[in-house]
Design goal:
hydrolase activity, 260 residues, Putative metal-dependent hydrolase, YgjP-like_metallopeptidase, Zincin-like, hydrolase, alpha/beta, 7 helices
Length: 260
């Protein structure tokens, strides 16, 4: 009987490496049409995970029981990637900010054009079409578009706020721009204003209503009859502005700037 032949087994055989575990919840889900943001909401009353699109198909929202692990949520998102792809693609008005895309702007449209040979971005009219020529490296395209829109939004909002503030005789303490989904504007009791910069994509009269609405809170920190009377005094066309946001506001949230 031949003696046994010693065999040296690799350490990986004796102590196999565990498969890498996906534990972190992704901040974004990379899709064919571009990344979408991921928001996770823990609900102690939830019995299972629920997936839905955020307003304007700008992202996805996962509602999960409190005890569900990050790994389970990440795997849940991966299993339903196809569902998200399909729903985002079918969402009305969903536009990804990219070279050649057209977005709403001040009640009209604005074509986004990459111009890497330029150092700065500027507005131009090309063949009768309003364009934003976006300077700088292509990898900074989305950020530069958002920066430009924020700058224009601040300019328009500041002018509207100053006008309405002069009427009520009170000045704002500060004004911030955000990218909120739940509200277009807010005002604190000490007159600190915050607005969604996306309002610059709406018609100017809608932006004016939003500014009037928040400035009216300088006098009336409620939504009672006196508040609405003051709001109407500041902005006689407030009904149009309010209705426009209800009907078309989700379309502005559908402009996907997640690559910024």
């Amino acid at each position: 009987m031949l003696p046994p032949i010693p065999v040296r087994l690799p350490m990986s055989f004796l102590f196999p490496r565990a498969k890498p575990r996906v534990s972190a919840i992704p901040e974004r889900l990379d899709l064919a049409g571009g990344p979408v943001a991921v928001t996770v909401r823990r609900n102690p009353r939830a019995k299972r995970m629920i997936l839905r699109l955020a307003p304007g198909a700008s992202g996805v929202v996962v509602t999960a029981p409190r005890q569900v692990s990050g790994r389970a949520i990440a795997e849940f998102l991966e299993r339903h990637r196809g569902w998200v792809e399909e729903r985002v693609a079918r969402a009305p008005g969903h536009v990804v900010v990219a070279d050649g895309a057209t977005i709403p702007f001040r009640g009209g449209t604005l074509r986004l054009v990459s111009a890497p040979e330029r150092r700065a971005s500027r507005f131009e009219t090309v063949d009768g079409e309003a364009c934003l020529m976006v300077g700088g490296a292509p990898e900074h395209f989305v950020r530069r578009v958002v920066d430009t829109l924020k700058r224009e939004a601040r300019q328009d909002l500041q002018a509207a706020v100053d006008r309405h503030a002069a009427t009520v005789g009170l000045r704002p303490r500060s004004m911030a721009l955000k990218d909120t989904r739940s509200r277009w504007g807010s005002c604190t009791i000490d007159r600190r204003l915050a607005f969604s910069w996306r309002i610059v994509m709406a018609p100017p009269e809608v932006l004016d209503y939003l500014a009037a609405h928040e400035v009216a809170h300088f006098r009336e920190m409620n939504h009672g009859a006196s508040f609405w009377a003051l709001c109407r005094e500041l902005c006689p066309g407030m009904d149009h502005g309010r209705d426009w946001l209800k009907r078309h506001g989700a379309g502005l949230h559908a402009i996907d700037c997640s690559g910024a």
